[in-house]
Amino acid sequence: MALDFIAGCIGGCAGIIAGHPLDTLKVHIQSGRGSALECTKALLKGGTLSTAYRGVGAPLGGIAVINSLVFGVYGNTRRSLPYPDSLLSHGVAGGIAGFIQSFACAPVELVKTRQQLVRPGEKMPTGAWSGARYILRTGGYRALFKGLGITIARDSPAFTIYFVSYEAMIRGDHSVTTVFTAGGLAGALSWILLYPIDVVKSRLQGDVEGKYKGAWDCFRKSVQTDGWRCMRRGIGAVTIRAFISNGACFTAVAWTDRAWQRLLHFNSAQAAKIGEAVRCDTPEYYEL
Q1: What is the reported pLDDT for 282?
Q2: Which of 90, 199, 208, 260 sits in a 20 to 30 Å window from 141, CA-based?
Q3: For the chain, how many structural domains are there in total?
Q4: What is the membrane topology listed in the Swiss-Prot or TrEMBL record (predicted)?
Q5: pTM for this predicted structure
Q6: Is the Cβ–Cβ distance between 62 and 128 less than 8 Å?
Q7: Is residue 230 classed exposed, middle or buried when 0-12, 13-18 and 19+ CB atoms within 10 A define those classes?
């Protein structure tokens, strides 16, 4: 139904705004630009959050498509399955949603990553669409979809974990506190379990020099150069960011759904009152 797409869009925007500074910090740490403390100092240099919000236009620009796809495909797929309320149905629907949205997510995250990692003097536009056009102009469509395979490998299982764990935690309790907490924990869990894949994706998409031939080559060279610890680098920032961002996302989705249900109930009640008034009316009332 259309509500799934609308709620997903609103929830995604709320999650991006809440969590983008920590996402920027995550990308800087993953790319080897220093420890969490060093990267935090660099991002807050100047006393503002402008650097931390660099590249926010790309995810916000694409979030209407990405989160609408996620929640729209998830909701409609789940309802089409034989037992839509089972955890298995939630998992299958989540995996399919993650696979489909990867085709929109990969180019959006590529632009975001390039903008987050831009160095002084590099020619990389700051706007979402201008950044995408720049990549297309300099590298073509293959450059814009660089990292698509590793994005699918991350997102399909991640959304399976995401929706199953969230649904398991909110059963019997849909209060705001429970929804926020369950959404945050579900997001954090999916990121923690698949974090090494995200590290490879960030390094691969941020590679403007052509050091890596692909995802496996990126993984192999990263471990050879920085050791196995690089696969967990930045996990603290991403866990906090995932909790805040996904808690805000699910809260906004739940709020949108409740607002829609109240509107439908109000309209139904009003229609019933009007219908009752017309039914009880008498033709003599209108006689001159």
Answers
A1: 52
A2: 199
A3: 1
A4: Multi-pass membrane protein
A5: 0.74
A6: yes
A7: buried
